[in-house]
Design a protein that fits this description.
Elements: E1 8-11, H1 16-28, E2 33-34, H2 46-56, E3 60-63, H3 71-76, H4 78-98, E4 103-107, H5 136-156, E5 160-165, E6 167-169, H6 182-196, E7 200-204, E8 210-211, E9 213-215, H7 216-228, H8 231-236, E10 244-247, E11 253-254, H9 255-266, E12 271-275, E13 284-285, H10 290-294, H11 303-321
Parallel strand pairs: 1-2, 1-3, 3-4, 4-5, 5-10, 6-9, 7-12, 8-13
Antiparallel strand pairs: 8-11
Helix pairs in contact: 1-7, 2-4, 4-5, 6-9, 6-11, 9-11
């Protein structure tokens, strides 16, 4: 069989990461990409997922489906975050094993690492300390996904892989005023302030925490790159206890620096103020990406360029909504 005829299931294809993975696969020439909307297949429904895998028999699976959000959403809906993510990954990974899927890629999150992990955070920092309380339920679900892949590999000889992205942004992001992540929330806030000629924009926290950001198209390329690796090449950069690989830029900046950059891209002329009564979250989250570099992948889109592209995406979505 031609490799471009492989049956590839992208779970979560309407999300920011899943849609980018579909675009990346299509650009590379893959012709047999399987998708389902949430209305067509509820991934938390074990019987439904089992029937889907039995019928479609995908050969490769990308697990990009997840319930995600920023500090506010994680604090407000902890039960939904842990339940939904646990159920989705357990159902998909188990049925992938049961139906003989050749390769699976699970997408995690950098919040799996301890709140005060040494920086930059290497893969072996996992489970070495306490998690950030504001997103602990979500982080535990993602850690469980890594361990599911590890366990099925160990017990059944599967080829299930895991990548841990840093903070992602780009086309298809969630710009909700309360439930979005920090960068899309800033894009919306600064844009609305510009349109209203508001004198200032308020940012949560002190502005001192440092964060790393990766453009979603770069993440999609990383995912396909990792899946295309031979089993030997992937295994050479992992081991039984550390089977996941970090994906990021290896560079970070403070929230205050990010706010200044977003305001410049949006061309907002007002003042930036900080609400120190709001939580900062983890002080710093920078990934050690040396393993991913050793596997031959590096990001292509710089932060300023990526924010400009994301802002254009936001404005186009706004026009459609209006």
């Amino acid at each position: 069989m031609n490799q471009f005829d492989k049956r590839i299931f992208v779970a979560g294809h309407r999300g920011m990461v899943g849609s980018a993975i579909v675009r990346c696969l299509e650009a590379q020439g893959y012709r047999n990409i399987i998708t389902r909307t949430r209305a067509e297949l509820d991934l938390t429904d074990q019987a439904g997922v089992r029937a889907f895998f039995a019928e479609e028999k995908p050969q490769e699976v990308y697990v990009a489906a997840a319930k995600v959000g920023g500090i506010h959403a994680n604090n407000t809906y902890p039960a939904e975050f842990i339940y939904s993510n646990l159920m989705v990954e357990a159902n998909v990974i188990h049925e992938a094993w049961r139906t003989g899927v050749a390769k699976l890629l699970f997408l995690g999150s950098s919040c799996i690492y301890p709140r005060l992990a040494p920086q930059p955070m290497a893969e072996d920092a996992l489970l070495t300390g306490k998690l950030e309380p504001t997103n602990e339920p979500y982080a535990i679900a993602k850690i469980a996904g890594i361990k599911l892949c590890e366990s099925y590999n160990r017990q059944y000889g599967c080829d299930f892989r895991s990548v841990m992205p840093t903070n992602l942004y780009g086309p298809g992001d969630n710009y909700h005023p309360e439930n979005s992540h920090v960068l899309p929330a800033m894009i919306r806030r600064f844009h609305e302030a510009k349109m209203a000629d508001a004198p200032s924009v308020v940012i949560w926290g002190t502005g001192s925490p440092k964060r790393e950001f990766l453009y979603v198209e770069d993440m999609a390329r990383a995912c396909v790159h990792v899946m295309d690796l031979s089993r030997e090449a992937y295994a050479a950069n992992t081991d039984v206890s550390v089977s996941h690989i970090n994906v990021g830029t290896g560079e970070d900046l403070s929230i205050a620096e990010l706010a200044s950059l977003v305001s410049e891209v949006v061309d907002y002329q007002g003042e930036i103020r900080y609400d120190t009564s709001k939580p900062d979250g983890t002080p710093r989250k920078l990934l050690d990406v040396s393993r991913m570099h050793a596997l031959g992948w590096r990001p292509q889109v710089g932060l300023r360029e990526g924010i400009a592209r994301a802002y254009e995406d936001f404005r186009s979505e706004e026009l459609v909504a209006s």
